[in-house]
Structures are given as C-alpha cells and as structure tokens.
Amino acid sequence: MRELDPLTIAEDWKKAGRNVALATVIETWGSAPRPVGSHLVIDDEGQFEGSVSGGCVEGAVITEALEVLDHGQARILEFGVADETAWRVGLSCGGRIRVYVERLS
C-alpha cells in the first residue's frame, strides 16, 4: 500500500471540513532524523499524519499545533539536546530541528 503525502492528506481533510495545521521542518543541525521540508499535518481532534522527527518530538508538535488551531497564531518551535526542552522532549540522535507550525485556511 502506497503512503500518501501529508500535504495531500491535509487537502483532503480541509475539503472534508476539518481544521488543519501544518508543521514543516525549516532548519536542522547535526544528525536530525528528518530533512528540511518534512511535514506533519494535524487536525483539531489531534489526528495526525507524517513526521517531523521520526517520533522524537511529534507529541510536543501536535500539542503546539492544537494551540495554533485554537488561536490562529503561527509559531516556530525548536527542539534539541542543547535547549531547555531537553529533559521533556528531545532528539535521541542528538541533532536539533526548527519546525514552523501554521494553520491552513
């Protein structure tokens, strides 16, 4: 079975009347598990498709995406072993990533 592109899934969800946020990897340092341009789509029920970190920080990104859906304000998230979130969420590979989260209209 072929996996659908997260952007295609986002369009399908929007057509079905769901509110959708898009998380996109915009920058990486070190051995980040996903390349720049990787996507995670999230609906207002918390359902998601895609990946921005191979499972390392998806939970935190989903939580932030739900806030973006509630308030409409896009944000940039940064994760890695050298910041204050290292003990809550982090990249097991030791890299760092920046993720842009926006509401799709």
From TrEMBL:
Pfam families: XdhC_CoxI
Transmembrane segments: none
Residue ranges occupied by any XdhC- CoxI domain in the UniProt entry: 13-80
Source superkingdom: Bacteria
Protein name in the entry: XdhC family protein
Originating organism: Rhizobium helianthi
